[in-house]
Amino acid sequence: MDIMQHVPIIMIILPVFFAAFTVLFRSKSGLQKALNVGVFALLFILSLRLLSYVWDNGILVYEVGEWGKYGILLVADLLGAGMVVLSSLISLMAMIYATDYMDRKALDTTFFPLFNLMAAGLNGIFLTGDIFNMFVFFEILVLSSCGLIVLTGRGDHTKMADKLEAIFKYLVLNMVSITLMLVAIASLYATVGTLNMADIAVKVSYLAEAGTLPWHFHVIAMILIVVFGYKASMFPLHFWLADVHPSAPAPIHAMLSGMVIKVGVYGILRVHYLIFNETMFMLQPILILLSLITIAVGATSAIGQYDLKRMLAYSSVSQIGYVLLGVGMGTAYALTAAIVYLVNHAVAKSMLFLATGETLYHAGTKDIRKMGGFAKSSPFLGSIFLIGAMSIAGLPPTGGFFSKLVLFDAGLSSEYYIPVAIALVFAIFTLFYLFRTWLAIFWGEIKDTDNADGYTERKPTVAIKVALALLACVVIYMGVYPEHLLSLSGTIADQLLDPQPYITAVLERSVR
Amino acid sequence: MTTLIAKTITKACVPIIILFSISLLLAGHNYPGGGFIGGVMFTSAISLLYIVFGLRYMDSLYRYQWEKWFAVGLLISTLTGIGAMAFRYSFLRSTYLTVSLPLLGDIKLLSTTFFDIGVYLVVTGSLLFVFKTMGEDE
Amino acid sequence: MNLLDLALVVMTLSLLPCLYRIVFGPTVADRVVGLDALTLVIVVILGAYSYVQESPFFLDAALVMAIIGFIGTIAIARYLEEGEIF
Amino acid sequence: MNDTLLSVSIALVFGIATFMILRRDLIRVAIGITLLSHATNMLIVSTGAFLGGRTPIITGDKAVSTGGTFIDDLATGILAPVIPDGIEIAYVDPLVQALTLTAIVISLATTAFLLILCYRLYQEQGTTDVSEIRRLKG
Amino acid sequence: MDLFTAITLAVFLPFIMAAILPAAERVLKNRVGWYAAAVALICLLLVAQALPAVVNGETVTGSFPWIPSLQVELSFYGDGLSVMFGLIVSGIGILIMSYSNEYMSKREDLSRYYRYLLMFMGSMLGMVFSSNAIQLFVFWELTSITSFMLIGYWRNRPMSVYGATKSLLVTAGGGIFMLAGFLLLGIITGTFDIVTILQNGSMIALIKGHELFLPALVLIIIGAAAKSAQGPFYIWLPNAMEAPTPVSAFLHSATMVKAGIYLVARIHPIFSGTEAWFVLVGGLGIITMLAAGFLAFRQTDIKGILAYSTISQLAYMMAMYGYTSYQYPGIGVTAATFHLLNHATFKACLFLVAGIVAHETATRDITKMGGLRKELPATFIIGAIAALSMAGVPPLNGFLSKEMFYESSLEMGHILGGPFEYLIPAAAVLGGAFTFAYSIRFIDGIFLGKRRSEHLPKHMHEPTPVMLFPPALLAALVILIGIFPSAAVHYIIEPAASGILLEDVQLHVSLWHGFTAALLMTIITFIAGAALYARYGAIAAWQDRVSARYPAWSFNSLYDRIVNGASGKSTAFAKVMQPGPLSPYLIAMLLIFLLLSAVPVIMIAGTLIPTELNLEVPMYEAVLLGLIILASLGTAVLRKYLHAIIAVSAVGYLVSLVFIYLQAPDLAITQLLVETLATIIFLLVIIKVPQTFREKITRSVLARDLLISSAVSITVLILLLNASQGIVSPFESLSYYFIENSVPLAGGHNMVNVILVDFRGYDTLGEIVVLCLAGLGVYNLLKSRSDSK
Amino acid sequence: MLFTAIEVASNIFFLIGILFVFLGMVGLLRLPDVYNRLHATTKIATLGAFGVMLAITIRTGLSAMGLKAIMVGIFLILTAPVAAHIIARAAHRSGTELWTGSVADEYAEACVAKKDELNSGPDKRL
Amino acid sequence: MKQYIAYALILGLVWSFVSGNISVLNFMVGSILGLLIVQSLKKLYRPDKDMTFRSIAEHLPKLAVYFAVLLIEITKASVQIARIILSPGMDIRPGIIAVPIRATKDASITAIANTISLTPGTLTIDISDDMTKLYVHAIDVSEPEELKHSIRDKLEKYVLEAFE
Ligand code: NA
Ligand code: NA
Predict the structure, then answer these.
(1) Is residue E125 a contact partner of residue E32, using CB atoms and an 8 Å limit?
(2) What pLDDT is recorded for position F101?
(3) Distance between CA E315 and CA E288 in Å, rounded?
(4) How far is the CA of A152 from the centre of ligand 2 (A)?
(5) Residue A20 and residue B93: Cβ atoms within 8 Å?
(6) Nearest CB to F38: which of G85, G123, G126?
(7) What is the number of structural domains in chain B?
(8) Where is the NADH:quinone oxidoreductase/Mrp antiporter transmembrane domain (chain E) (predicted)?
């Protein structure tokens, strides 16, 4: 077997293995850091190799245990591999950043294993071809997030009590949503007798053609929308996000807002577009409606926030609404737009959150009203923050511009005039609150706070600068030369709308 | 608390429970049981010791680092899978061979047994780690 | 009515007093006794299953139940008495 | 077991659990979550109780034959497994049991975390009342 | 070097040079402005290379591959219009950057200043040479951002921040609408390339007949108006005066604000010749011209006067580009284009003069000035020339284009007929009169009369030649173009107008062109303007009274109310959307679950409850399940935690009995074990919390929760009853494979275990990872105690 | 013939066992206080359970089933009294009153005496 | 070492039982596992010095007698309690009494306490701190002295023989 064939499983097993390794051999912090950054760099390189392999050679199916569709398959199609690249990129940067940012205590104890497992969870979700396995990896992701949120970093001004409360809400809601997911999976299995998503898809389309598709099948689709909508923080399932994400230390915040909420979108793209085509006619209007409300609610809430992290969290809600709008409109172009949007938001938001962590460390407070004048002392952070804000606001020459461009274009070409109009208006809201915030932090006078004297001494360290600068490069790259992303997303969208190659690749496996 | 009576009976029971847990682990492939069940059984045995003799007393006798247990377990389980890759198979590709030994007769050696042992250690390690950490908490 | 049905009916009825004690008490100790008795009845049900179906699988469950019923009881009793477990 | 009655019971436990998780009390929410996972686990098993009626453990050394074929025929759309008519399988569905087992273990892990979270929350906030713990408002 | 390369280079050079500017600054120290000026000069030369070609009616085109997915190339297009703009931008750029050498204090952050100036210049050049809408938009928004950085250059001053924010919100926000307009255009025509559209008559016809014509036009005009401070969008421009004066000169005379005008000119062939075009562009221009002229008149800040005057001058151009009819779509085009050039010269000059004045007097308040002609004679002369040109006084260039404005107004009025025959010329004259009045006020207030303030410095002296040369050069241009317009007309205006009108334009402009109606209007303008200025005190007082009585009736206060009010309203909104406790979140989740589950029921009328239900129930099953319900109810009812936990254990044990009945010994064992361990954890926790918590459940909360719970219950029941009808034929469960193969292939008899460790061992791997995570997470939780405790 | 005898014997043990467990549970319901109820579960029910296990062993001999059943029986006999003892002790120490019809409580007296002596809370020794 | 082996062999037997297979091989496997378990738990167990094969061998018949007696007593006890349970009036006079014991070794004290719990109408609640008295709950304490006497003479005798 070609070594490339193993890359999907390596993307998951390597961090798991390494997590165990780290728990077992707690060594000196410096070595630990270097090893972990090394592993994540390796994962990133592998993910790129995987994507290019899939691009060249088509869908890569990996049989764990070699049981064909009767076991669990990892399916690296362009969507999956692309998401893995994205998550590997962001985790690498967050990891580099974290080696400096996180508390000594966290680095010495559980940070590295938890972070490794979080990465494994993400990759596992993106690569699995089995719906129950997706549930398992959802749990990995949730629990690792919870464990990581508790940890603290140097710019982390969240009270422990608040963190715990946030985790409590997150966890309880998650457990309810996971319950719903299990109900859906069990019902799905009871209806078609399989858990392999490609297998389900082909059986469902057979039943639909034969006219024997039971009606409760659509209920299952709806339940899964609730599950994924919760993960993606779609209205009215978005409440938790503004509590939870800001409670996390910056690198984890970046992971959560950058990658983890994207899992919900991925879920809809993967599961609904593969399996629930028959329900799409009901789902699409619902998704569009809810995504528009999500956009509006997120943006409107963000404006009134003076807690920087919270403001950005609401912004994530709003932005995910744009992604879901694309998902809901459902044409090839709209899906392209959704994926482009997703990628750009992931990169820019995670960069913004990493920058925020460092900014809060400099500021000594979370309250925007108490900040000001940092441009002079931290021009680097100011530029990074600006690039991030521009991208989220959709201004060129950042990636965010093209995501808005293609989204609006897709909407207008499918004659969704009113949704686009609403999205457009809230894009200006976004511009407003992001720039207002940027100005409040970096321009104006230095405020008289606890840190008024000390703030100049706190300069970002090399690791933090490297992580931020690399992400900024990606943001600019996607704004200056978006063709790679656009054509990749376009191909992904085509594959989503025509799942036949996916199904064929999966089901043409021989059994032992 | 715990009286002499409870302690004595506990001493008598714990080895039984541990043996039973090992039996569940090894028999799991053919009878009810397996790594998880065995591991939880073992955990129960140790919890019984903790309950009856007290965590602090047990800790003064043995300094178990349960987190190492689950790390080792996770390593064993993943290595079982990776082992298959070394033979150019897929991850977690199972295999078994029936060995005829002169004294012991036919013995079926399964690669999945190692996987199950990993599961056993992880379950034991993580649950006892939780118990111990929580029990030590003031 | 065959032996299994008989055993199951009698044992299921035996569950009622346990549940009564667990839910209605009146004292905590009564609830603990109820739970302890519940585990015992379950052991018997498992035994009955094995006996009638002549399959050993449920005896493993019975042994498990016997063991951990004991542990659970001791844990709750220790909590009740001293307000701590470990 | 009777499907209908079981379904009704599962649904009722779902309802009770829902009522519990809407309470203001941390511990009661945790209990509600536990009930919810009980209900879910029963639900998963119940959806698979359709094959035969025997414990899914093969006694004796002979492999069981279902007479089925397991090769997918994408061209006709009829996908494996294909089982000829009139084949009666003695065993209950083992797959749902395995899924439930995984679900049980996962919910144990999550519940453990949740409970200790409740304790820490009480420790930090001095109350188990969820609605008093509302610092994160607005 | 071919022309396309020259233009491309001219666009990218400023960016490249801006990137390496910090390095240059290290070498040149505070002379780095010359470096920037040199860059601008090179750009000018590069652009100028194209001039001969465009004068000959040729165009420069070329492209690089960029985004094939959107069929968008990186393409540049040089015609008369864009070359004119390129020359203005880079030419004035040279002057501004040279001027800044002296103007900007050595202590300033020069690197940032010139970096953004260069980037701004590059963006402007990129914008005017862009061939396609997407690329144009990119550069368009870049000008918004770079100008935002420039306006807010003094970033610690609150008013700078305010002004910068406003400019960004209005211009970039308007840009987003414009983008939508471009997208509609793209959807109608199938291309984003404006030049392609321009050169394709059938496409233009298609657009004009399309139902999306009006939306596209409105959206694009919103963007243009926002950029050019027209209509209600004017509000950003006066506040943008917080920028360093050279920046204001650059932004508001020649570049930033002209972007909107450029866009209007560029899309002129596509949309003009329609009523909508006239109403939107022309109407907007006329109204803005009057309002801004009126407002400029009463300003006390010299830069304020220039700001409002800029708005009103831009409105002239807007109005002229808006003049259109089906027969002669380009009525005002040449006039507007000529005025555009003239305005660039005199307004840049005026700003630079204002900069000198402010620099010397250390104030910008015109009421404190006066009599400066003695101390600053050269400045006075230069300023007076520029202001008089703005006022439309012959023989300066402003006079020429003003005359043309009147002519085109008359023509437009004539075409429209009816009351418009007089209204439009009258409006033009009134606008001219305001212009005359505030121009005179600028000269009079600053240079003439006596000193009005003691606070002015005792000794003022003329600035150095470095600072004086740029305005002097511009003033010279004002005179030169005024007296000898034909060169400018031939080399610049005609090609530009041809570029707009897509036909060869021949234009004859001379200082004296006979006694025409326009000349009469000019004379009326002067008289009316003088009268207005004479009544300045009364008018200003009236204006103050009005704005004092209706303080909220302005677009500025509307903006402030929206911006400030939004935060407050949103805080309140967020409070509503963020109730805090868990239960509302959960209720939201459950409700959406219920609602969405109901959708298929409504849309596909299925039988909710299957007819073939097994209703034969052995007694012991009923009792067992009943006991589970009883014990579950117990957990809900029992007050003390310990009691509830004992009941939970009972539920768990009973559930394991259900598993036994369902022939699942592995599950039953697991359930029993897990239940016991969970009980131990429960106990470990309730040791440390109070024994109970009594929640007072009000009747309404009870009703609500019961309702939700029953709904959940019923939904799950219906789903489950339907789902447990068995796998839909012809499909079968995967389990057949496991049953058949667990012994021969996996070597195990316990199928469940074989599935767990082999068929689906990967799931189990995930499961043990979850267990590890619980351990690590709990460790974190318990070691996370805050120090305050 | 022997086979049937074993079957009959085991069935008898089985039924008696079931019956005893049932009686124990009736006792659990009927007896007046927790201490008395413990008698019912510790003795009768445990015996009943032992009987069922014995029945299995009789039926299957030293097969896997029989051995396991014996193990279950032994374990129950080992643990049931301890569990009862610990519950009773905990109940008494946590203040569960004896039934009003009880005639003596020497344990309470001893506890009171010791409490006076130590003047401390519950016994914390291991 | 000997005592370890003794323990290990006992555990080997237990292993054979719990794994449901009595064979020499399985017994050996169990003994090895048992040895490992005892070894790793030795700090807690402190295997008694006098735990030898001979003492085990000597005690075995007595243990058997003890178990026989125990079973008979349990059966008697059960019948007695069953009668009480089923009697409509439930005429009982319960109470807690202190019963002095002679046993000194842990195993024998435990054995006597459990024996009391399993036999007619009595239930061990606690041991006194000095390990000389058991507090016993009895369903019928109308004649406490007789009860104490019967415990000492009937039950403790067998226990002491089997365990001391
Ligand atoms: Na498992
Ligand atoms: Na018991």
Answers:
(1) no
(2) 72
(3) 6
(4) 46
(5) no
(6) G123
(7) 1
(8) 130-416
Residues of D with CB below 8 A from A209's CB?
Answer: 77
Q: Distance (Å, rounded) from C-alpha E599 to C-alpha D7?
A: 22
Instruction: List alpha helices for chain G, DSSP H.
Output: 2-18, 24-40, 42-45, 53-86, 106-118, 144-150, 157-163
Q: Is the peptide bond before A397 cis (omega within 30 degrees of 0)?
A: yes
Q: What's the start-to-end Cα distance of chain B, in Å?
A: 18
Residue of A1, A13, A64 with shortest CB distance to B78: A13
Give the right CATH number for G59-163 from 3.40.50, 3.30.70, 2.120.10, 3.30.1740: 3.30.70
Residues 6+ apart with CB under 8 A from E62: E4, E5, E8, E75, E76
- Phi–psi pair at E713, nearest 5 degrees: -60, -50
E382 and E349 in contact (C-beta within 8 Å)? Answer: yes
Domain span at residue B72? 4-135
Residue E234: closest CA among E216, E260, E267: E260
* Residue ranges covered by each domain of chain G: 2-45, 59-163
Task: Please indicate if any CB of chain A lies within 8 Å of the CB of B38.
Answer: no
Higher pLDDT residue, G151 or E649? E649
Cβ distance of A239 and E138 shorter than 8 Å:
no
CA-CA distance, G98 to E33, in Å (whole number)?
Answer: 105
Report the 10 Å Cβ neighbour count for E205: 10
- Predicted local confidence at residue D134, as pLDDT: 57
- E479: tokens are 């005179």
B38 touches chain E (CB under 8 A): no
Residue E352 has pLDDT above 70, yes or no: yes
Interchain contact, E672 vs C19, CB within 8 Å: no
Identity of the residue in F38, F89, F102 whose CB atom sits nearest the CB atom of G95: F102
C-alpha distance from residue E645 to each of E654, E678, F93 (Å): 14, 10, 21
In C, minimum Cα distance to D54 occurs at: C53
Distance from CA of B89 to the nearest CA of G (A): 33
Amino acid identity for residue F99 in this structure: W
Give G52-81 as a DSSP string.
-HHHHHHHHHHHHHHHHHHHHHHHHHHHHH
Quick: pLDDT tens for A374-416: 888 888 999 999 999 999 999 988 999 999 999 999 999 999 9
**What is the enclosing helix (H) or strand (E) of A313?**
helix A308-329
G28 touches chain B (CB under 8 A): no
d(CA A269, CA A330): 10
Write the residue in B31, B36, B130 that is nearest to D112 by C-beta: B130
Q: What is the CA radius of gyration of chain F?
A: 20
CB contact under 8 A, B32 and C86: no
Q: Which residues from chain D sit within 8 angstroms of residue C57, using beta carbons?
A: 55, 57
B134 touches chain F (CB under 8 A): no
Q: Are strands A60-64 and A72-76 parallel, antiparallel or unpaired?
A: antiparallel
Q: Do E672 and C15 touch (CB under 8 A)?
A: no
Distance E678 CA to ligand 1 centre (A): 17
Q: Which ligand ends up closest to the CA of C44?
A: 2
Contact A186, D43 (CB under 8 A): yes
The answer to whether G94 faces chain F, any CB pair under 8 Å, is yes
A378 three-state secondary structure: coil
In chain B, the residue whose alpha carbon lies closest to the alpha carbon of E772 is: B126
Give me the phi and psi of E75, to 5 degrees please. Answer: -125, 140
Of E341 and G46, which is predicted with more confidence?
A: E341
Model pTM score: 0.94
Beta bridge partners of E67: E72
Number of the ligand closest to the Cα of C68: 2
Domain boundaries along the sequence of chain C: 3-82
pLDDT band of residue E128 (cuts 50, 70, 90) is very high
Chain B nearest C-alpha distance from D108 (Å): 10
Q: Determine the length of chain G.
A: 164
Specify whether the CB–CB gap between G18 and F71 falls below 8 A: yes
